[in-house]
């Protein structure tokens, strides 16, 4: 796959598996990239040479713009819609099931599925410019698949606030206050140094202890394979509505 279509790559060094994704359209994620990302997270989780996983994207302005609008607008039936949204479910579940901590590096804005990925990570670093938005309701869908991950991280009240006011950006400071971001920095250099320090520290920690602690942290999510599949089916149905098609066309014309 060429970089014009997007890429996912993994580099493992000194016990740290760094997974990087990229798409030229603000790091949005078409279905093929979602499944590659889920696969790479699973592989890193099973790799004995990797003690911790760092998840990041390329570029400066956007961490992840969520679903690919080009792919959304091309969906013609519920089966295709369900398959697409199941990609986000696969990524979240891969993070959940990995027996290693996943650190997210959020260097820019996160929208929709991007907020879901940042929420699913076990520890998330961000820049102070990394504002967040759950824009799904504005295009007639709703954050159904990523919702459980976001709600788990920031609580029901903040999740509903973010979901209902779907056109409003919330600041990185807001995201830190709600618990989505663990730490926020003013420069990329400071953030990268913090990511490196925590990743290195965890790489020397007990793998067994970390795996057990991760189980504790994710207690109560054992049904997510089924739950997120059900949520994907809801989004897969709603994306076929005339309202959603018109809304996505307007978003594509005016930008996210």
SSE topology sketch:
Blueprint: E1 7-13, E2 16-22, H1 31-46, E3 52-57, E4 62-64, H2 69-74, H3 78-97, E5 102-106, E6 109-111, H4 113-120, E7 123-127, E8 132-133, H5 147-154, H6 156-164, H7 172-178, E9 183-185, H8 188-203, H9 207-217, H10 224-238, H11 242-254
Parallel strand pairs: 2-3, 3-5, 4-6, 5-7, 6-8, 7-9
Antiparallel strand pairs: 1-2
Helix pairs in contact: 1-3, 3-4, 3-10, 4-5, 5-6
Instruction: Report strand %.
Output: 15-25%
Strand order, main sheet: write it out. 1-2-3-5-7-9
Number of strands: 9
* Overall form: globular
Average pLDDT reading: 95
User: Which residues sit in consecutive blocks of at least 5 with pLDDT less than 50?
Assistant: none
Helix tally equals 11
What is the fold named in CATH at topology level?
A: 2-enoyl-CoA Hydratase, Chain A, domain 1
Query: Mind telling me the CATH superfamily name?
Result: 2-enoyl-CoA Hydratase, Chain A, domain 1
* Range of helix content: 40-55%
The level-1 CATH class:
Alpha Beta
Outline the biggest β-sheet: 6 strands, mixed
CATH architecture: Alpha-Beta Complex
Q: How many domain regions?
A: 1
Counting helices, strands and paired strands, the structural category is alpha/beta
Instruction: Give the distance, in angstroms, between the N- and C-terminal Cα atoms.
Output: 25 Å
The helix/strand series, from N terminus to C terminus, equals EEHEEHHEEHEEHHHEHHHH
Report Rg. Answer: 17 Å
What key attributes describe this structure?
256 residues; 2-enoyl-CoA Hydratase, Chain A, domain 1; 6-stranded mixed beta sheet; 3-stranded parallel beta sheet; 11 helices; 9 strands; alpha/beta
């Amino acid at each position: 796959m060429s970089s014009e279509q997007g890429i996912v790559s993994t580099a493992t060094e000194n016990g740290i598996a760094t997974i990087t994704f990229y798409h030229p359209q603000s790091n949005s994620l078409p279905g093929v990239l979602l499944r590659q990302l889920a696969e790479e997270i699973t592989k890193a989780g099973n790799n004995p040479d990797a003690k911790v996983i760092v998840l990041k994207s390329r570029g400066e302005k956007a961490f992840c713009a969520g679903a690919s609008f080009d792919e959304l607008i091309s969906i013609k039936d519920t089966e295709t819609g369900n398959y697409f949204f199941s990609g986000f479910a696969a990524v979240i579940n891969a993070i959940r099931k990995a027996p290693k901590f996943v650190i997210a590096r959020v260097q820019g804005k996160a929208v929709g599925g991007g907020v879901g990925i940042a929420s699913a990570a076990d520890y998330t670093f961000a820049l102070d410019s990394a504002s967040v938005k759950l824009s799904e309701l504005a295009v007639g869908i709703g954050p159904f698949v990523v919702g459980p991950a976001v709600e788990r991280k920031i609580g029901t009240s903040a999740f509903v606030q973010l979901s209902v006011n779907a056109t409003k950006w919330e600041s990185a400071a807001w995201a830190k206050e709600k618990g989505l971001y663990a730490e926020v920095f003013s420069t990329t250099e400071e953030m990268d140094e913090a990511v490196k320090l925590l990743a290195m520290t965890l790489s020397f920690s007990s793998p067994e202890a970390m795996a057990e602690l991760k189980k504790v942290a994710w207690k109560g999510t054992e049904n997510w394979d089924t739950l997120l599949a059900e949520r994907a089916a809801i989004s897969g149905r709603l994306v076929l509505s005339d309202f959603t098609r018109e809304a996505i066309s307007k978003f594509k014309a005016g930008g996210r």
